[in-house]
């Protein structure tokens, strides 16, 4: 038995796939990280967003931004809003940084680590206007369902981080995951469904199309969007 077998590892919603990074992505990681990248603050001091962004603006968090196309497009088209992204996939982080640098975005910061840790250790309570969770890994096999990021504790954590009446938008192309999301969200005492009890939003409601969404559509999958508002 190795030490790895003995230490209890938390169940994570991702497996870090290395993938291939282009030279531009590698260079961007080094050059742009000091400007766009955030690490966990020391000694459980949460970030003060006004200091980070040098202004007080609305704040949107995207969890699992993938290759970053949606987040980049949002940040470019809404210069009046500040955006925070979280991702663990190195090529996606590299690609986002390389584009953000070229686009000279001043309203975007990212974390390259598990969203659960970032939410627990870096993001102050009641500091976000909106959280986007677009096409999270569906973990279709029953034995992997525990890896799905949408669980009651996760939803409780999101509720804590949202401002009063903040929005949590989720989307998936995997029907069983959509049903799971709906049952967890409906059961939460912290949220109400903007589209009525058990109601789905129109597909793509007020958001950009994502890479994984296009992939799902090519496979003939339907799209489910859920939009919930925090109650207090
Ligand atoms: C299926 S992809 C979707 C990417 C993108 N949102 C899209 O729609 O194209 C899910 C992404 O979530 C990321 N992810 C999963 N769990 C995460 C976690 N706990 N923290 C940060 N990123 C996570 C994965 O690395 C992956 O890139």
From TrEMBL:
Q: Which domain of life is it from?
A: Bacteria
Q: Which InterPro entries match?
A: SAM-dependent_MTases_sf (IPR029063), tRNA_(Gua-N-7)_MeTrfase_Trmb (IPR003358), tRNA_methyltr_TrmB_bact (IPR055361)
CDD domains attached to this UniProt entry: AdoMet_MTases (cd02440)
Which pathway features in its UniProt record? tRNA modification; N(7)-methylguanine-tRNA biosynthesis
Tell me the residue numbers annotated for binding S-adenosyl-L-methionine. 62, 87, 114, 137
- EC class of this enzyme? transferase
Q: What is its EC number?
A: 2.1.1.33
NCBIfam families under this entry?
tRNA (guanosine(46)-N7)-methyltransferase TrmB
Query: According to its UniProt entry, what is the function of this protein?
Result: Catalyzes the formation of N(7)-methylguanine at position 46 (m7G46) in tRNA.
What's the protein called, per UniProt? tRNA (guanine-N(7)-)-methyltransferase
Source organism per UniProt: Candidatus Berkiella aquae
């Amino acid at each position: 038995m190795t030490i790895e077998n003995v230490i209890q590892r938390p169940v994570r919603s991702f497996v870090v796939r290395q993938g291939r990074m282009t030279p531009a992505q590698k260079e961007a990681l080094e050059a742009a990280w000091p400007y766009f990248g955030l690490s966990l603050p020391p000694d459980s001091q949460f970030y003060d967003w006004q200091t980070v962004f040098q202004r007080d603006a609305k704040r949107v968090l995207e969890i699992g931004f993938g290759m970053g196309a949606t987040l980049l497009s949002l940040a470019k088209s809404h210069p009046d809003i500040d955006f925070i992204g979280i991702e663990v996939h190195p090529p996606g982080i590299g690609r986002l940084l390389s584009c953000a640098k070229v686009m000279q975005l001043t309203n975007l910061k990212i974390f390259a680590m598990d969203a659960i840790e970032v939410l627990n250790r870096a993001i102050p309570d009641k500091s976000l206007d909106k959280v986007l969770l677009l096409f999270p890994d569906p973990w279709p096999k029953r034995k992997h369902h525990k890896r799905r990021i949408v669980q009651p504790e996760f939803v409780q954590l999101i509720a804590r981080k949202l401002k009063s009446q903040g929005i949590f938008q989720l989307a998936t192309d995997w029907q069983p995951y959509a049903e799971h999301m709906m049952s967890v969200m409906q059961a939460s005492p912290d949220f109400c469904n903007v589209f009525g009890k058990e109601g789905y939003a129109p597909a793509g409601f007020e958001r950009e199309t994502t890479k994984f969404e296009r992939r799902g559509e090519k496979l003939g999958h339907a799209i489910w969007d859920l939009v919930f508002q925090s109650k207090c």
